[in-house]
Design goal:
The chain is mostly helical and 295 residues long. The protein has a single domain, classed as Orthogonal Bundle (ABC transporter involved in vitamin B12 uptake, BtuC). The chain has helices at residues 9-40, 47-65, 69-90, 100-122, 148-170, 172-182, 184-189, 194-216, 226-241, 246-266, 274-285; strands at 3-4, 7-8, 138-140, 145-147. It has a two-stranded antiparallel ribbon. It has a two-stranded antiparallel ribbon with strand order 3-4. Helix 9 packs parallel to helix 11 (274-285). The longest helix has 32 residues, at 9-40.
Length: 295
Amino acid sequence: MFTILGIPSQALFGQLLLGLINGSFYALLSLGLAIIFGLLNVINFAHGAQYMMGAFLTWMLLSYFGIGYWWALLLVPILVGIFGLLLERLLISRLHHLDHLYGLLLTFGLALIIQGAFRIQYGVSGLPYGIPVTLAGGQNLGFMFLPNYRLWVILLSLSVCLATWLLIEKTKLGAYLRAATENPTLVQAFGINVPRLITLTYGGGVALAALAGVMAAPIYSVNPNMGADMIITVFAVVVIGGMGSIAGSIVTGFALGLIEGLTKLLYPEASSTVIFIIMAIVLLLKPAGLFGRRV
């Protein structure tokens, strides 16, 4: 085992791996938040609760119906996405013409209701969910042991983030979405159903949160508080990258995960606050965020 800057290589690469894993979830969750805010102008504080729902539904499909991880990876984002469609159509759509604060308060209340319902039913102790057999084990790289499931999480998160960015930035559907946020009246004049487009966009952002929940179930403890523990950090990631910036959320999510991982090794006392320190510095120097545009 060799050392880098006096740090054992196994410890350094282990923390970098941990940072990449956390960054994968930061990127995926902040991507969903950025889509909802950037295209709908809704601050979705229920995003953490929807992430938690994804993890719980994954556990419930296995425990009650015997449906394993791979089917859950497909079914759970669809089910939670449908739940998001209903929320947007029945509640959130009524607030589009009001100030952002009303949407924030509504989604914050929804988060408390969802989290409370799961806490009443399942308590606060974590529920175990095993790693799928096909992704068990790992690779011995000589300087560290790389678990297969951790590698899968990183690669899947990168793939989903890239595919989502390409969909929004490089396709006709993405152009319709961006145009609908700039001038919905004009877009509707071309025969495009803007309210339906907005509803589907919110459902897609929620589905991304649920997908992150499925991926998190074998790594983190499945419990009602897992979304509340994550959402504040994810909001900080979105602010640093730039509210509504798709690329900013992806790049910042992975970068801050790595920085957090290194901080745990170099100065553990600051690991829980380093992201918020960076957020404060960025807001002082560039209030719109690193990739945001001044309005």
